[in-house]
Design goal:
By secondary structure, the protein is an alpha/beta fold. Helices cover 26% and strands 26% of the residues. The radius of gyration is 19 Å and the shape is globular.
Length: 349
Amino acid sequence: MYACLPGDFERQSAILLGCNELLPYHPHTLVEIVGTLIDRIPIIALVESESQRKDLLALLCDWGLPAHLLHFVSLPVKGMWVRDYGPSFVRTRSRGITILDADYVETDRPNDDRAPTELAELLKVPVVRVPLTFEGGNVISNGQGLCITTKLLVKRNEKRGYDEAAVRRVLKEYYGFDQCVILAPLMSEPTGHVDMFAAFVAPNIVVLGEYDPKTDPVNADVLNENAAILAGVQTRWGPLQVVRIPMPSNHGSIWRTFANVIFANDTLLVPRYPRVDEDLFDKAARIYASLLPGWDIVGIDAHTLIVQRGALRCVSLNIPWLDDRFAPANPWRSRRTYRVTSTCCQQSP
């Protein structure tokens, strides 16, 4: 029915942030994200109310940020995990954009499932209901008809009477996925989502986490087996290139990751965890820099966020290039470059 779900790494109109919970519970992370991106790409802040909008403006002004550049959307949603319950933007064969609204099941936050349709009305984009229980964090796309997910997606849809073949048919019909690679999720990691250990950086390149067998032998094997499966996938440009990046410690059942990133045109935000595996962050940042030449690689403190079982991609949603409706008057004003240090990516003079 549709051409394809774009890749996160493709050109974008804006970034949507789940500020409704980021603001009260993770203000430092929110400030770092906004401070890095606010003069690079339009940011749409999802808030619950007018009072929350004012609180966010006050926080950003306190940090000396140009808060007037933000766009705001007020919806009665509770969760910050906008990646999971938010809309999927797919290209139509006529190169237009349609929003897909799949079912998001969260019994204590039923209003979150309303977000795709309400955003479609705001953006004046057509919306289509999808007969699938779907969490956006469990699908990554190469933008050319290939997706990667985990076995959890099939399990989520067993109550519908779907088997794996049925799930694949829906993904092809609505999302345009001619190929769907279904991997094993991390053992004991609570979300079961693929974006906790993998990310496409190009149509034919995927980064995949790698655990030190001395620290997590079980998940080291899980990811090595996933790497072998992915290495056998064919793309339009030949075999899929699998690049391994280190996985930080999951000590204390805190599932830290460097794969759960935000792509924002030529800027990549990578979660970092101060005082935990800082050498591994440096290594991951260098790998991303080698794969994304000309991009700025910026570390964002996600140490409080990851305790809630998610990182940067989870609280954000890429809005692909629609037209100029979100384009700022001077989109690349005050461009900055960054260098990787032992603690984060510091601004260069």
